Amino acid sequence: MGQMRLVVVGAGGRMGRALTRAVTETADAEIVAAVDREGAEVLGQDAGELAGVGSLGVKITDDPLTAFAKADGVLDFTAPKASLWFAELAAQARIVHVIGTTGWAEGEDAPLLAAARHARIVKSGNMSLGVNLLAALVRKAAAALDADFDIEVLEMHHKHKVDAPSGTALLLGEAAAKGRGIDLTAHSVRTRDGIMDPRTTGDIGFATLRGGSVIGEHTVILAGEGERIELTHRAGDRQLFARGAVKAALWGFDQKPGFYSMADVLGLDA
Ligand code: NAD
């Protein structure tokens, strides 16, 4: 392969611009198209100029079909409905689809499994090496400690984030549930307010903070009688997710059709 030809969808977004920068820093990849939604203010602008890396000669369009036809892969940090649509198009075009989008409702991402019969999909609520390593550690800790250790996942993000808990918090909750051998949906507590029953042993709780420009902070607390373990990851730069996504695309190029996670890309048992 020469350079892997990539499309950035949601090119006008915070992550879209970070993805454009990350591709331009990667010798093995190039941007061949950039897409955003119909009516978006950024349509017609040069993706590189918008991302602060100078003109790339790639204008942002609202036409993913034409974009995908000339690409080997798509980098997608947009919104669940958009990602489902892009998955159909990527499967038809037989290209790699890297999905960082979060905020999926229960079962909403099921059609992606069908698309993965033809496409190579890598989907993760967090594309950083650190968080995926943290997930592996959380799984180990949850497996080693019994259910007397209460597990709580605390996260903080910038004030613009629209979904809660974060995709990463859910990824970490899943890792804890896997370690315990339980189903997260049946054991997760997403909100607490007012007078309520005391905590049920074995539950996994989530707490969400929003404010300022925080890129992403996650702590998994394992609280026992008289002792507490806290495992924390702090993201200081959005570029680390974008670099992970480009790495996932390059990795996906050589894979068979299937549904993969970032743990697969990184060779981690999470
Ligand atoms: P953002 O709002 O800045 O950007 C989203 C972009 O997607 C916008 O430009 C929007 O116009 C575009 N978009 C929406 N619908 C579209 C459609 N139908 N077609 C084309 N473009 C469309 O948001 P953001 O901060 O960049 O985050 C985007 C997503 O990525 C969120 O779900 C966020 O939680 C997630 N995220 C994931 C990771 C990770 O590592 N997996 C890291 C950071 C953010």
Q: How would you describe the overall organization of this protein?
A:
There is one protein chain. This protein is α/β, with parallel strands linked by helices. Helices cover 35% and strands 24% of the residues. The chain has helices at residues 14-24, 47-51, 64-69, 80-93, 111-115, 129-144, 167-180, 184-187, 239-252, 262-266, and strands at residues 4-9, 29-35, 60-61, 73-76, 96-99, 120-123, 150-157, 188-189, 204-210, 216-224, 227-235, 258-260. A seven-stranded parallel sheet has the order 3-2-1-4-5-6-12, sandwiched between helices. Strands 8-9-7-10-11 form a five-stranded mixed sheet. Helix 5 links the parallel strand 5 and strand 6. Helix 6 runs parallel beside helix 7. The longest helix is centred in the middle third of the chain and has 16 residues, at 129-144. The radius of gyration is 19 Å and the shape is elongated. The mean pLDDT is 96.
Short note summarizing the structure:
The protein has 270 residues and is of the alpha/beta class. The chain has helices at residues 14-24, 47-51, 64-69, 80-93, 111-115, 129-144, 167-180, 184-187, 239-252, 262-266, and strands at residues 4-9, 29-35, 60-61, 73-76, 96-99, 120-123, 150-157, 188-189, 204-210, 216-224, 227-235, 258-260.
Give the strand content.
Answer: 15-25%
Average residue pLDDT: 96
What is the makeup of the main sheet?
Answer: 7 strands, parallel
Strands of the largest sheet, in order across it?
Answer: 3-2-1-4-5-6-12
Number of strands: 12
Shape annotation: elongated
The total of helices stands at 10
Named once each, the bound ligands are:
nicotinamide-adenine-dinucleotide
Terminal Cα span: 30 Å
The secondary-structure element order is EHEHEHEHEHEHEHHEEEEHEH
Fraction of residues in H or I helices = 25-40%
What radius of gyration results from the CA coordinates?
A: 19 Å
Low-confidence stretches: none
Structural class: alpha/beta
